[in-house]
């Protein structure tokens, strides 16, 4: 027996018509919605294309402006860097001039010190604190003062070079950053929608915490430039000071050098005159010694020559005492012989006294002779020290303008 198959229920015609109407209405709504979406899509695509293009153009303009700004400040940094480099080179030249000037002080200082030492070898009365010694001591003071001033100026120059190099370092660091930024922004300005190496990235979607404002960026370079400019102006002023110091020290050294030389000339001339006078007096004393020795010989001879008359007188007196008796008369001969004897004694005494005076005078002349010879030798030694040693030694000194 066949089994009955259960079939789904059938819809009514009204339900069929209602279902169709619902489908028609839903399709209509969806078409209308789709049409609105298509219209909105066209509008929004056009709007976003225009906005994106406008924004991209604005970014391009701002990149161009940024490149102009960075180029300007890089140019300012380059200019200041070149000026700083030039000024550092100038300072290094002035530093070398100062170092040379300090080295050049060593020889004159040694020469002057040697002159003071060797002049201590003057002896006796010539070891005098004369004008030469005064001026030599002053020359030592001038040389030491100049050396000290040059060293202080050199220290200032070295410090200024350090400051200039520090300013140059910050300029170079800023220039390096500007160069890097220029390359990056130039590369960015060259990118377009068809560039090959474009990609998605969230790294630049927010403002970096360590970033600065445009004003701060500009102030940073401006401060570096102002610092370099300030140090450059200080260096220019310092070079002017160094020039003045070198000129003034040169003038002071040459002036005192000339004063000492004149003092040496005057002292040598004075010593030579004194030596000449002493030699003149020695010649006269030598002559007088010769004459006095002759005079002493003459006096001795005169005394000697009185011995024979004295003997004759005494012999006569002795013989006449032998006259006999009344012939032993006190006659004029007797009195004259007594008178002659006394007269000869007086004359011999006078000659002996004069001989003693002559011999004393001769001793005085000989003492003067020795004293004059000694003093002449002293003067000769002094002249040798001043003229042959010091003056010749000082020819090593040759001051040159630096």
Characterization of the model:
The protein is mostly helical. It is 83% helix and 0% strand. The protein contains five helices and no strands. Helix 1 runs antiparallel to helix 2, helix 2 packs antiparallel against helix 3 and helix 4 runs antiparallel to helix 5. The longest helix has 107 residues. The chain starts with 12 loop residues before the first helix and ends in a 9-residue tail after the last helix. The model has no long low-confidence stretch (mean pLDDT 88).
Helix-strand topology string: HHHHH
Given the structure, what is the number of helices? 5
Low-confidence stretches: none
Structural class: mainly alpha
Q: Quote the beta fraction.
A: under 5%
Mean pLDDT: 88
Biggest β-sheet: count, sense, barrel? none
Please count the beta strands (DSSP E, at least 2 residues each). Answer: 0
Proportion of helical residues: over 70%
Please report the distance between the alpha carbons of the first and last residues.
Answer: 142 Å
What is the oligomeric state here? single chain
Shape: rod-shaped
Radius of gyration: 62 Å
């Amino acid at each position: 027996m066949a089994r009955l198959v259960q079939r789904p229920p059938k819809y009514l015609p009204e339900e069929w018509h209602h279902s169709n109407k619902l489908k028609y209405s839903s399709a209509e709504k969806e078409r209308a919605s789709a049409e609105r979406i298509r219209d909105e899509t066209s509008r929004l695509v056009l709007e976003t294309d225009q906005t994106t293009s406008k924004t991209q153009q604005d970014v391009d303009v701002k990149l161009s402006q940024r490149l102009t700004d960075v180029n300007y400040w890089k140019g300012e940094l380059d200019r200041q860097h070149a000026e700083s480099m030039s000024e550092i080179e100038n300072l290094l030249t002035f530093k070398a001039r100062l170092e040379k000037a300090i080295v050049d002080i060593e020889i004159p200082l040694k020469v002057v010190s040697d002159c003071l030492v060797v002049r201590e070898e003057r002896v006796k009365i010539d070891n005098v604190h004369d004008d030469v010694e005064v001026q030599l001591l002053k020359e030592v003071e001038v040389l030491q003062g100049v050396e000290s001033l040059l060293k202080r100026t050199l220290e200032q120059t070295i410090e200024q070079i350090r400051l200039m190099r520090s300013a140059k370092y910050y300029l170079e660091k800023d220039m390096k950053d500007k160069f890097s930024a220029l390359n990056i922004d130039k590369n960015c300005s060259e990118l377009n929608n068809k560039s090959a190496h474009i990609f998605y990235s969230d790294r630049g979607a927010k403002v970096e915490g360590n970033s600065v404002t445009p004003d701060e960026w500009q102030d940073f370079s401006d401060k570096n430039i102002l610092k370099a400019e300030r140090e450059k102006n200080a260096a220019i002023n310092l070079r002017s000071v160094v020039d003045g110091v070198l000129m003034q020290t040169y003038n002071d050294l040459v002036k005192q050098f000339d004063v000492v030389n004149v003092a040496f000339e005057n002292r040598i001339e004075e010593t030579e005159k004194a030596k000449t006078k002493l030699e003149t007096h020695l010649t006269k004393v030598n002559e007088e010694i010769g004459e006095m020795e002759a005079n002493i010989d003459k006096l001795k001879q005169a005394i000697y020559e009185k011995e024979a008359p004295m003997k004759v007188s005494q012999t006569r007196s002795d013989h006449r005492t032998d006259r006999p008796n009344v012939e032993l008369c006190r006659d004029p001969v007797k009195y004259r012989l007594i008178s002659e004897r006394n007269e000869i004694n007086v004359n011999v005494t006078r000659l002996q006294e004069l001989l003693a005076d002559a011999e004393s005078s001769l001793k005085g002349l000989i003492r003067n002779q020795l004293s004059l010879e000694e003093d002449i030798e002293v003067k000769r030694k002094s002249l040798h020290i001043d003229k042959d040693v010091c003056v010749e030694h000082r020819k090593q000194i040759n001051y040159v303008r630096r």
